[in-house]
Design brief:
mainly alpha, 2 strands, two-stranded antiparallel sheet
Length: 181
């Protein structure tokens, strides 16, 4: 079970608070977070810091719940729903919740970029974004090979493409056409 404070390390101290006869709150703490909060394994000193610890956890939980209620202004998807379903509502969710999505992906998502092939049904899809990536790679290769004439040509094509919307008409094919190889 992960620590309720850092959400990174394995918990080694488990405490449960029972209030009002039926409400229970459980805290799982790793050694580092326990020491950070002044919790000593000595039974005499642990009771003094428990009240502060439960208050801090309640505040942390409240802040997380408030953050989870943030909504994407484009599609209305909440950050909490994205965390729960691991699906964004629209492309803007990635930009709006960038830090949270990045943290979520680092915990639960892929660790490396996808290196596989494109699905056959999408192989004919063409986009300006793909053209930009292809040109950027060709530009980098030309500069590395110290072929500055080709690099200048790729740079000019890239500048022209950057003025085109990502969902452009796909007029540039990225093919060599005898000039750009």
């Amino acid at each position: 079970m992960l620590c309720d404070f850092c959400h990174e390390r394995e918990a080694v101290i488990y405490m449960e608070q029972i209030t009002g006869g039926s409400q229970k709150r459980r805290i799982n703490i790793c050694v580092e977070c326990a020491v950070e909060r002044g919790i000593n394994p000595d039974p005499k000193s642990i009771q003094a810091s428990l009240g502060v610890l439960f208050k801090e956890l309640a505040d942390t939980k409240r802040r997380m719940e408030e953050a989870d209620k943030k909504l994407c202004p484009v599609c209305g998807t909440s950050l909490g729903k994205i965390k729960k379903t691991l699906k964004a509502g629209c492309p803007e969710c990635y930009a709006i919740f960038r830090d949270d999505v990045t943290a979520l992906l680092s915990q639960k998502g892929p660790v490396e970029p996808y290196k596989g092939t494109m699905p056959a049904r999408l192989s004919t899809v063409h986009s300006v974004l793909n053209d930009r990536i292809i040109l950027r790679n060709k530009l980098d290769d030309a500069v590395a090979a110290e072929n500055y004439e080709k690099a200048a040509l790729y740079r000019d094509y890239l500048k022209a493409l950057e003025k085109t919307a990502v969902s452009g008409d796909g007029s540039f094919t990225g093919e060599d056409n005898g000039q750009l190889s």
